[in-house]
Design goal:
The chain is mainly α. The protein contains 6 helices and no strands. 79% of the residues lie in helices and 0% in strands. The protein starts with a helix and ends with a helix. The chain is elongated and about 55 Å long. The longest helix has 32 residues. The chain has one domain.
Length: 150
């Protein structure tokens, strides 16, 4: 008996989709919250900055994040085990990328290299596609049984 298999936290694939959705919602929500807080603290050119963030965030979603979230949902749906490890909603490459992005965002904010005027736009621009991508995971989770029969 393999003790690591017994200790491995497992989830049904449907709940793995919901866990992924919550992680993406949290990440997107955190960035949107920080971005909006920075907008409030630096209201210079507010409408222009918000417009640029919304346009760029939407483009990021359309050209990048929609494909990334589609790849992750397909990978989760195609996992061979019905109860995979609860951390398998990301692959190793995505965990590394996520760590780099979180560390980079914190370093940018703490270092003061980038003024909050621009950080607000960066955080909001990145929060929008993350939050929109989470909706795909929720959709797959809620429609799991219908989608799994394909």
């Amino acid at each position: 008996m393999n003790y690591f298999q017994v200790l491995k936290p497992k989830l049904p694939k449907r709940y793995l989709l919901f866990l992924a959705a919550m992680v993406w919602t949290f990440a997107g929500g955190m960035l949107l919250y920080k971005g909006i807080a920075f907008y409030i603290s630096e209201p210079i050119y507010l409408i222009l900055r918000c417009s640029v963030s919304i346009i760029c965030g939407s483009l990021f979603y359309y050209f990048m994040f929609s494909k990334i979230s589609a790849k992750h949902t397909t990978r989760i749906m195609n996992i061979q085990h019905e109860k995979p490890c609860m951390f398998s909603f990301f692959n190793v490459r995505s965990y590394i990328l996520m760590s780099i992005m979180i560390t980079g965002g914190i370093l940018l904010r703490k270092s003061g290299i980038v003024p909050t005027l621009y950080l607000s736009m960066l955080y909001t621009t990145m929060g929008i596609p993350l939050f929109l991508s989470s909706l795909r995971f929720y959709n797959y989770g809620f429609n799991y049984h219908k989608l799994n029969k394909r």
